[in-house]
Model the fold of this input.
Amino acid sequence: QVQLVESGGGLVQPGGSLRLSCAASGIIVSINAMGWYRQAPGKERELVATITKFGTTNCADSVKGRFTISRDNAKNTVYLQMNSLKPEDTAVYYCNRRSDSGIYDYWGQGTQVTVSS
Done:
């Protein structure tokens, strides 16, 4: 059984930082493509960052230069380091696995990030 458990969300002031964690079980993150999505109230779900099984990373233009995706193979965990946070980054952030067919088939329960003064 695959489980992805996110943590690390919370309330932060604009300009602050948070690091989200996604602890995986039932899959090995080092041989899977993983990603982070977010969804804000009333908005469509947005792909924020991805990391391939080869370790290649990519981020959406809206967060490029501020967010970094990484993984710790020993801990079987994927991270999203978020710096210089803005109010528009407020959303529920979800960790997921992208299958070889390109479908994001496993999702975590999400963690809330709120950026507000």
